[in-house]
Automatic annotation (TrEMBL):
It comes from Streptomyces alkaliterrae. Signal peptide: none annotated. Residues 1-14 have a biased composition (Polar residues). This is Streptogrisin B. One of its GO terms (molecular function) is serine-type endopeptidase activity. Residues 1-29 are annotated as: Disordered. Residues 20-29 have a biased composition (Basic residues). The keyword Protease applies.
Length: 262
């Protein structure tokens, strides 16, 4: 019996068309060997891993860019109310947010929507001793958490490039819901404010204005692209002038080993 590729029941090499296919296989083997050698050389030089890491970072950035983002200045919701994210931060690959201390506590679940259907974070740490801030840990992969603050429709988000300690005379700005960007200067540091819910210490005072119902507690204050703090108390208004008191962010980030500008 004779079958394709066999003669008299003995396996035979298929026809090579005058050796053309054989030469083609030899060429492919040589090319594959050359590629293997080049890859080994790049790895030995430390370039192969770097290229792979760069490609991985680029892919991760592209994936994040396609997701809806939660930024500093956005509002999250819980069963006990709504609060502003002052700033996003990172520890390694994990993303966190910082909020004012009245915003829940350990284990509080935060949602992206007021209907409480899309959980995004959980309360992880509370500032001691005065509970002036809370650190939340982002848990949802549905969203991106860039090192940015909410901006306007023209200029877009504000990229956070670092954190700055408050000092008298430093220009700072914050964004309100209806008025938009308001700017002023820091007039004093290490301030104490007595409120019905407790005494707040270590704050900085600024000549920013805040309107009741328009500027939320926790609203971030920044100097250019550097984050400085977030709003905790205010007096006056934006018509006759006002005074605002803010929690500095530098000590919070340092205490929890968190970074911005990632």
């Amino acid at each position: 019996m004779t079958e394709t590729g066999m003669t008299g029941g003995t396996p035979q090499a298929p026809s090579t068309g005058r050796g053309g296919r054989s030469r083609s296989r030899t060429t492919r083997r040589r090319r594959a060997a050359l590629v293997t050698v080049l890859c080994a050389l790049l790895t030995a030089l430390g370039l192969g891993g770097a290229t792979s890491a760069a490609a991985t970072d680029a892919a991760a950035a592209a994936a994040d860019a396609s997701k809806p983002a939660i930024r500093g200045g956005n509002v999250l919701h819980s069963t006990s109310g709504s609060c502003v994210v002052a700033v996003n931060a990172a520890r390694g690959e994990q993303r966190y947010g910082v909020m004012a201390g009245h915003c829940g506590g350990l284990g509080t679940v935060w949602y992206a929507d007021a209907g409480l259907r899309r959980p995004v974070a959980v309360g992880e740490s509370v500032g001691h001793p005065s509970r002036q801030y809370v650190v939340i840990r982002y848990t949802s992969t549905e969203f991106a958490y860039p090192s940015e603050l909410v901006g306007d429709s023209v200029t877009g988000p504000v990229r956070v490039t670092g954190v700055r300690s408050p000092a008298p005379g430093l220009a700072v700005c914050h964004r309100t819901a209806t008025i938009g960007l308001r700017c002023g200067t820091i007039t004093a540091v290490n301030q104490t404010v007595n409120l019905p819910q407790g005494t707040l210490t270590g704050l900085f005072r600024a000549s920013l204005c805040a309107e009741p119902g328009d500027t939320l507690i926790g609203t971030p204050a920044h100097s250019g692209s550097q984050i400085v703090g977030f709003l905790l108390a205010a007096s006056g208004n934006c018509r006759t002038g006002g005074t605002t008191f803010h929690q500095p962010l530098a000590p919070i980030l340092a205490a929890h080993n968190l970074t911005v500008a990632y």
